[in-house]
Design goal:
globular; NUDIX_hydrolase_dom; hydrolase; 8 strands; alpha+beta; RNA-binding; 33% helix; U8 snoRNA-decapping enzyme; binds inosine-5'-diphosphate; EC 3.6.1.64
Amino acid sequence: MADIGWGPLLAESEGYGRLGDKTDDYKPLTSDDIEKLAEAGFKPHQHASHGMIFFRKQNKLWDIYEQKGFAMMQMRFDGTLGFPGGLMDEGETPLQCLNRELREEIGFDPTKHAFSDNEHIASYLHEGKNLVLHFYVKEVSAEEYFALETNTLHAHEYGIETLGIIRVPLFTMGDGLRGFPAFLTNNFAGNARSQLITGLVAAKLFTQEDMTKAIEAYKGFMKNSH
Ligand SMILES: O=c1[nH]cnc2c1ncn2[C@@H]1O[C@H](COP(=O)(O)OP(=O)(O)O)[C@@H](O)[C@H]1O
């Protein structure tokens, strides 16, 4: 392929984002595993941190559908959906990485509402990619959420890494598919689909039972559409 001018830095990390990862490729890490990694200065793996920001609002959409609030995702440069976040720099912790990436991607002001360690939900290792993904979930007020959405338009990475900020539809329509289950049929970066599912249940925006129903509807649709 012709040299299209990627800097050595991008070329080096470009392999991490290749599409086609399977959920099973990501092994959940225990808190002991993570502690050991921290003691080793997070070596020998590459790390990335991503965060789900949400607000809670019980609402009847069009007076019909139970809506639980909104969670923030983004359309990424590579055409997949993901959470704000990115790769950890040398000398950073996963939490520092997340707060830096959020400033760059969504104009998040860490002095006002930084993510903290108790908002860490799960971490996963992809052995093939030698990559650890750290995932955090943060609740904000509706006002803060709307302000962050507006900020994204002025953030450094808008139009480069982040092509648009979106609200995940947290409701299901009468056919049991449109709304959240249909949203799951999109293409997601890394293990972002399973992070979304885990994050929404951890945030108590979905009960385990409602989530199981949504996953069944999504899987049924995928099976019948191929
Ligand atoms: O929201 C996400 N959840 C889980 N993994 C993600 C998400 N977004 C990107 N990834 C994965 O994380 C790795 C780092 O990608 P990312 O593009 O965020 O870093 P960068 O912005 O520093 O280049 C890639 O393997 C990518 O597939």
